Amino acid sequence: MIEDILSIKDLAREEIKKAKDSKTVQAVRVKFLGKKGILTGKLKSLSSIPNEHRPEYGRVLNEVKTEIEAILKKQEEFFKSAELQNSLKANRIDVTVPGYCIPCGHRHPTSRVLDEIVDVFLSLGFRIEEGPEVELDYYNFEALNMPKDHPARDMQDTFYINEDVVLRTHTSPVQVHVMKKNRPPLRVIAPGKVYRCDADVSHTPMFQQIEGFMVDSHITMSDLKGVLEVFIHQIFGPKTPVRFRPSFFPFTEPSAEIDIGCVICGGTGCRVCKNTGWIEILGAGMINPRVFEMVGYDPEAYTGFAFGMGIERITMLKYGIDDIRLFFENDKRFLEQF
Amino acid sequence: MKASINWLKEFVEFSLTPQEIAETLTMSGLEVEGMEETENDTLLEVNVPPNRPDCLSINGLAREISAVLGLTLKQSRISVSESETVERPAVEIKDPGLCMRYSARIIRGVRIAPAPQRISQRLELHGIRAKNNVVDITNYVLLEMGHPLHAFDLDKLSGGRIVVKQAGSTDKFLSLDNDEKTLSSETLLIWDKEKPVAIAGVMGGLDTEVAGDTVNILLESACFNPVSVRRTSKRLNLSTESSYRFERGADIEGLIKALDRAAHLIAEIAGGKISALADNYPAPFKPVQIPFKFSKINAVLGIDINPQIAEELLTRLGFKIKREGDRHTVVPPCYRQDIRRDIDVIEEIARLYGYDKIPASLPSIRIQSELPAMRNLLRTVTESLRRSGYSEAINFSFLNPSALDKLMLSPEDARRNLIKIKNPLKNEDEALRTTLIPALLENVRLNLSRGEKSLRLFELSKVFLHSGQKLPAEPLRLSAVYLKGADSLSLWQGKHDGFYDLKGALEGLFAELRIEDYSFASEGFREPYLHPGKSCVVRACKIDIGTIGALHPAAAQAFDISGEIYLLELDAEKLLLNIPAGVTYRPLPKYPYVERDMAIVVSTEIKSADVSAAILNAEPDMIESVSLFDIYTGAHIPGGKKSLAFAIRYRAGDRTFTDSEVDLMHTKIIKQLADSFSAELRS
Ligand SMILES: [Zn+2]
Q1: Both B263 and B375 in a single domain?
Q2: Coil, strand or helix: which one is B576?
Q3: For residues B266-272, average pLDDT
Q4: Using 50, 70 and 90 to split pLDDT, how confident is the model at B222?
Q5: What are phi and psi of A335, to 5 degrees?
Q6: pLDDT grade, residue B530 (50/70/90)?
Q7: What pLDDT sits at residue B473?
Q8: CA B587 – ligand 1 centroid, Å
């Protein structure tokens, strides 16, 4: 009787050993331990064993069952692990295929630079104002001390809609609008598109400017220098050399042009700076008392400064772009660089 | 203006190198824009600003250099040996407002010949063509002294006299450039006894030109009204060395000197006897007296400059300072007509003192400013579209009117009511944009021509519309274009219509702006340039804000582009002005949802959004969301039909739904869909 059980054990051991995969092991389990399995049958027939042998028989039977159980489990685990390995090996992807991602679009380089400039002036307490792009001749010229028939008008080639209406040639008319509507103190910047009747490698008929001005009771040219130096050092780096030189604008007096050390050659001289080592980036000055009179301010009570710059020019210098027309072609290969 | 260093040195002795003198001029406000080396000289290209006509000559530049460097200006002694005859030209000014002074001398017995090389070479170096000794001398003196002169052939002046008056009814004049000019009645002319002989301050006439057979000449040195000369020059589109100087303002007090310098040189070089001077000067020049407070220098410039130094700088510039007690009056020299008030004097001091000596200070900053709400929103729009793959484009504001025909806009379309530029650079740019679409299509064309296959661009710019006022309305538009073509996304994308790419970008923008109330309404207005079956109106917060759709094939052909192209144009202000304010927190649901899918078969005409809405409206309090997750046509679906699959989330606020409750609602919805859309459950 006991021998029978032991031979069942050997048989089970033998079959488990021969099994080639987890499926066969499973079949062996069913054959011996299943509901109708050999060993299960023996366990069920335990009651038919004479009383005196039953404990011994039962003990052996359970031992064998535990043993087969253990071998089965071990073998099952072996195959499961092997099969998992195989399935992992079989299931591969090409990790070098590009990921699923909507490629990000790009901000226009001039907008990027404009935002930077705006943020510098916001931090200096300037607020933003805007004005119309189609402007009255009065605001664009006359109120800025450029009466009709004034030779200073030759400095800006103008697009006319009719005798009294122009495409603004600069953002300076915003000065007049703001001053007419508000009393000092004023600290304002005005970005926007401007238009000149001019087109070549360095001129486009439309470009963007940012105007800035400050009016209060004790504003000096020294303040103008301070504000513009902060601005230039933020945009072009703290070591950028800056120089102010006299110039002429009808709406500022004294007027200045501001040069920075050439960012291309570092000041040693190159084509961009015409070998001078300096590049002009800004026009500025103290607001002409005539402009104050035009807007109804007392020129004895207030002083102020104003400045204006071309965004494209600053962008060209920042990124080393050599043709202003690229800004308006919207060539994907250009836009995607920014 | 061009200036020879050697010539300058005849008036002021400086030891600076050409580079140093260029730097000196630039830093005092006369920017040297270029330098040209010649055999034994250097030519400076000086940018003289419009307020400094006094620097439009060698002598003027030398005077400026002498002031800046504190050197002495060599005054050339100008003397004329008049002949014993008492002859004096007869001059009459009829319009003293337009001609403030007219002086002249007659020189009899000149021999016309080429000018000596020292004169003709200098002229050519400075860009003036040599003609003959008399004409060249007038030009030489123009360059040297800055005052325009004109020589007439005296024997061709009828009656030998000069009258200065307007053209009146005379409307034709044959000028020196052998061109018949059409005159306006206001044009100021120089006349002889019977006919016009020169356009005052602009150009002489061909009939009285000094030529090879000329023996006697009349030499003119006058001063004309700047506005009058400028108008004439603009009207004739004729800018000459003479008109350029007169319109900026000539030195009325210095014109005799120039006349005598020229007369002297002519007599010396071409021979002849010089007559007595005619000088018609109705209202002699009165120098301006500017009350000046030295303390104001500091108030404007922010420097503490010693009044003695300021005075010395002004003296160097030829200014006179008069003192009466503590009151000072500054009198600028007659050639500085740009100096009218104290601020002009302060600028002169600053210029000579040196801008670099003005310290930099920062005005006290009250508080940091913030970006205005509108600009902030525009940054949000830009960032949202950028994240959806769209790059920002900036196009010119100009529009070629023919683009509107290509867009097939109807004749009544308001966008055809263009604002036109009187003087466009080219005819294609004669109008201002009323839509951003043509420019974006042009961007597509350019990129296609450069080999790009796909493109996503947007532009945020103003358009210009007639407003009934003097100035047009300038509303802001948001436009976008999507050119669907092979790109890195096509690796992953199914075969969906490109419309949904652009629509998705816009829905992303709505989400970013927290606009929940929006719809795409395929009924109503149709953009003529969009595909009628693939376009619609975009509605946000119950307002029509624009259109979206595929480019019409006929429009694509008109613009000479091909490919799948989708367009969007919105009124950005309408979009941004209706943004709901702020975010309100909604408590999280307490009970779980039950999700059921529903696949129905309906006619292809049925709009999925209508079905979604019907489902939601069937149990508005019980259904939390309805999402379309599959659209299918093909095998097992009859022709003209499509299958729509929705995931419906049921959730109650106060309990967990039981399966039977959900079953009941689900069945009810299916029945309703069958009634309203003839929908059948997909088997
Ligand atoms: Zn350089």
Answers
A1: no
A2: helix
A3: 94
A4: very high
A5: -60, -35
A6: very high
A7: 97
A8: 62
| pLDDT tens track for B532-544 | 999 999 999 889 9
Same domain for B204 and B275, yes or no, is yes
From CA B154, how far away is CA B210, in angstroms rounded?
A: 9
Final residue in a domain of this structure, among B24, B39, B69 = B69
CB of B392 closer than 8 Å to CB of B459: yes
In eight-state DSSP terms, residue A149 is: T
Per-residue pLDDT averaged across A25-48, rounded? 86
Report how far ligand 1's centroid is from the alpha carbon of A318 (Å).
Answer: 13
Angle in degrees, 0-180, between the axes of helices B58-69 and B18-27, rounded to the nearest 10: 80
Question: How far A307 CA lies from chain B's nearest CA (Å)?
Answer: 15
In the reported structure, the alpha carbon of residue A106 is separated from the centroid of ligand 1 by a whole-number distance in angstroms of 29
Compute the average pLDDT of residues B425-448: 96
**At residue B518, does pLDDT exceed 70?**
yes
Q: Which of A133, A136, A254 faces B351 most closely, judged by CB atoms?
A: A254
Kindly state the percentage of chain B with pLDDT values over 90. 86
User: What CATH number does the domain containing B548 carry?
Assistant: 3.30.930.10
The CATH number of the domain holding residue B614 is 3.30.70.380
Q: Is residue B582 part of a domain?
A: no
Strand, coil or helix: A219: coil
Residue B583 lies in a domain: no
A window 116-135, beta carbon within 8 A of B: 118, 121-128, 132-135
Which of B223, B246, B280 represents a domain boundary (last residue)?
A: B280
Give the SS3 label for residue A25. helix
Question: Do both B515 and B432 map to the same domain?
Answer: yes
CB contact under 8 A, B393 and A330: yes
Report if residue B437 sits inside a domain: yes
Give residue-wise pLDDT tens across range A113-156: 999 999 999 999 999 999 999 999 999 999 999 998 888 887 77
CATH number at B99 reads 3.50.40.10
CA A266 to ligand 1 center in whole angstroms = 6
Residue A257 contacts residue A248 (beta carbons within 8 Å):
no
User: pTM for the full model?
Assistant: 0.88
Statement to judge: residues B106 and B216 lie in one domain:
yes
Q: Which of residues 139-178 of A touch B (CB under 8 A)?
A: 149-152, 154-155, 159-162, 164-165, 167
Give contacts of A240 with chain B, Cβ < 8 Å: none
User: Do residues B231 and B203 share a domain?
Assistant: yes
CA-wise closest residue to B461 among B356, B363, B381, B344: B381
What is the per-residue pLDDT for A331? 97
A157/A205 Cα distance (integer angstroms)? 9
Q: Name the residue among B360, B393, B446 with its Cβ closest to that of A226.
A: B360
User: What's the CA gap between B53 and A246, in Å, rounded?
Assistant: 16
CB contact under 8 Å between B360 and A102, yes or no, is no
Q: Containing domain of residue B302, as a range?
A: 290-355
Is the domain of B666 the same as that of B617? yes
B499 vs A61, residue with greater confidence = B499
Rounded Cα distance, B142 and B258, in Å: 8
Is the same domain home to B235 and B269?
yes
pLDDT of amino acid B365: 66
pLDDT one-digit tens code per residue, B73-101: 998 778 888 876 678 899 999 999 999 99
Partnered with residue B222 across adjacent β-strands are B102
Q: Do A152 and B370 touch (CB under 8 A)?
A: no
- What is the helix (H) or strand (E) element at residue B483, kind and residue range? strand B476-484
B492 CB neighbours in chain A (<8 A) are 100
B29-55 per-position pLDDT tens digit? 999 999 999 888 999 999 999 999 999
Q: Which of B50, B52, B461 has the CB atom closest to A154's CB atom?
A: B50
Domain CATH code at residue B326: 3.30.56.10
Closest CA to A302 of A313, A281, A288: A288
CA A7: distance to chain centroid? 77
Number of domains in chain B: 5
Lowest model confidence (mean pLDDT) among A310-319, B82-91, B339-348, B649-658? B82-91
Mutate to test the interface with A, among B290, B304, B347, B484 (most CBs of A within 10 A): B347
Select the residue of B34, B230, B366 nearest A149 (Cβ to Cβ): B230
- What band does B366 get if pLDDT is binned at 50, 70 and 90? low
CB pair distance less than 8 Å for B365 and A125: yes
Residues B226 and B276 placed together within one structural domain of the fold: yes
